[in-house]
Amino acid sequence: MIKGGKNRFKKFYFAFMLFFLYIPFVPLFLFSFNASRSLTNWAGFSLQWYEKLMVDADIALAVINTVFIAIIATFLSVLIGTLAAIALSRSRKVLRDWLLRVNNLPIVNPEIVTAVAMLLLFISLGIPTGYLTMLLAHIGFCTPYVIITIYPKLRGLDPNVLEAAQDLGATPWQAIWKVLVPQIKTSIIAAAAIAFTMSFDDFIISYFTAGSVKNISIYLYTTKRRDPAVNAFSTIITLIVSLVVIGNHLRESRQLKRERGLLKENEKTI
Amino acid sequence: MPEFNPKIVPLRHKRPHRRIKISGFELLALPYVTVLLFLIFLPVLMIALYAFIKDSGSTNLIIFGFDNFIRFIGTPENIVTLGRSLRLALIATIICLLLGYPYAYFTAGSSNKSQRILILLATAPMWINMLLRVYAWRQIFDASGSLNAILGIFGVPEIDFLATEIPAIIGMVSVYLPFMILPIYTILRKLDSSLIEASSDLGARPQQTFWRVIFPLSIPGILSGITMVLLPTATTLVIPEYLSKNNYALIGNLIEMKFKNNGDWGYGSAISIVLGIVIMALVFFANRFDRFAEVEEKGAKR
To answer: Which of A53, A255, B123, B129 is most buried, most CB within 10 Å of its CB?
Structure first.
């Protein structure tokens, strides 16, 4: 384990970093409760921007679009990616190497290049841009990340287990579903989380491929800049994200504690 | 698709219908291969096609040529824009490294509980939509923003921050800092503590141990951090749009303009290809550097 440096410097440094990371949110929250339109002068507490947000059909539609696309894109890319990762872990080396090479294209390529490329494809094939093209694009950029999350885990597994399952009378599908999938469950969940957030927060690729459809990011980008309703919207999103992140942290901590407790009990019995 | 080859498979020929042959497993990748082909490979091919198509004046006739590329190189403004994109990205990456390395280092040296909390604090903003975080900085740096309001209390006249490059750099650093911290932290945490003990047992001062042992071993983490920050910052569309006065300040905005406003697809494609090649070259060199480190390591072992 590395030993830390001087304590006072360390404290000052962390204070500075956290200040830097979190300071932008302060005016954002503050002025979402402002009674006036101003983003600098405090005119008293009010919830009017939240009220405005609740009746804003554009924002509601953007949220629905984002969630809807994210759920479908996550489901399909995880399904396609998991099956492919299983196949890749057992395929010939030549095929695997080539597929993984193409797989890396959207990961090393700048997002804007991927976005432009997909737009050109849809235009050339004469597919009008909209929900469908946006969904296809999201599947296209999420699937490679699903592969790089699940595939390494599969490679680390004992290949004989699947054979054993089949020797014991399982059909191939049973062997995959009841033996392989449970072993890579955590990776599949991780891949789904990655795919969902990537789709949910995507801007550039959606911006180019969605036509007139707007997700949250496109709405934010194309809407008027200085609107306290956007502050209210940001505050709500930040609140939800914080709750999820903190909840996740607490759950993991509890789990760790339980595991450590079990270890200690085991030591006692030994 | 592979063909059935009895010479390879006969091991279990008694129950061939029960066993997935290699080719059978490969079929599971069919939807994925379709996605790769149509949504990843073909689009990249299209971009190349558009970039090389020359305006022939007729829709029936397609001529290929380097016109779009010559136009790009021949326009000094474009080269300036590309240079500015790379320069800002480089500055932001260096600041990320200088700020992020100590964070990763101190975190890796803390107790398990503080490690989890410090990493949580560094990564939590990543889960919030990037546009919202950039929008938040905009409210700080705006001419009538928070920073000017605070400075105004002290009698400082209004400063037009957005006319400078500082807000864009700060925005880049704040958005992509976690991408620098995480890979370095991952490497430092896994570092074999016996190496550090051995170094101090052999009489190295803490500083020497850091520069001679810890830092060289963390280079792979630094390199992946650099790639993960440099790539998105050099191609960002949102940050200059929000955090600088000049909307077409960086190369990403130039591509956006060609596609969204001008409908100049061939030209936009050519710029995208140039950008893609420049970025891939940078990534390639970073990886090569990493390989040199590996070779040195192996040499040292002998």
So the answer is: B129
Instruction: Judge: B279–A102 Cβ closer than 8 Å, yes or no.
Output: no
CATH of region B76-301, choose from 1.10.3720.10, 1.50.10.140, 3.40.50.410, 3.40.640.10: 1.10.3720.10
* Angstrom distance (rounded) from CA A81 to CA B28: 10
Give all domains of chain A, ordered by start, each with its CATH number.
56-224 (1.10.3720.10)
List CB contacts (< 8 A) between A204 and chain B.
237-238
When pLDDT is averaged across residues B290-298 and rounded to a whole number, the result is 55
Nearest CA to CA, how far is B295 from chain A (Å)?
24
Contact list in A for residue B116 (CB cut-off 8 A) is 249, 252-253
Dump pLDDT digits (tens) for B136-178: 998 899 888 888 888 888 888 888 888 888 999 999 999 999 9
CB atoms within 10 A of CB A97: 11
Instruction: Assess contact for B228 and B180: CB atoms under 8 A.
Output: yes
Q: Residue A106: its chain B contacts at CB < 8 A?
A: 40
Contacts of B2 in chain A (CB under 8 A): 92
Structural domain boundaries of chain B? 10-64, 76-301
In chain A (270 residues long), the average pLDDT of successive 10-residue segments reads 65 93 90 82 84 86 94 96 89 84 84 91 90 94 93 85 84 85 91 92 92 90 78 89 89 85 71
From residue A194, give the alpha-carbon distance in Å to each of A75, A141, A145, A197, B133. Answer: 12, 11, 8, 5, 19
Q: What is the pLDDT of residue A5?
A: 52
**Distance (Å) from the C-alpha of residue B183 to the closest C-alpha of chain A?**
16
Buried b (16+ CB within 10 A) or exposed e, B205-224: eeeebbeebbeebbbbbbbb
Distance CA A93, CA B29 (A): 14
What global pTM score does this model have?
A: 0.83
B28 interaction partners in chain A (CB closer than 8 Å): 83-84, 86-87
Under the banding of pLDDT at 50, 70 and 90, the label for residue B293 is low
Contacts of A47 (CB under 8 A, 6+ apart): A33
Contact B47 A117 (CB under 8 A): yes
State how far the Cα of B217 lies from the Cα of B215, in Å rounded to an integer. Answer: 5
B19 min Cα distance to partner chain A (Å)? 7
Measured in angstroms, the CA of A83 and the nearest CA of chain B are apart by: 5
Q: What per-residue confidence (pLDDT) applies to B134? A: 92
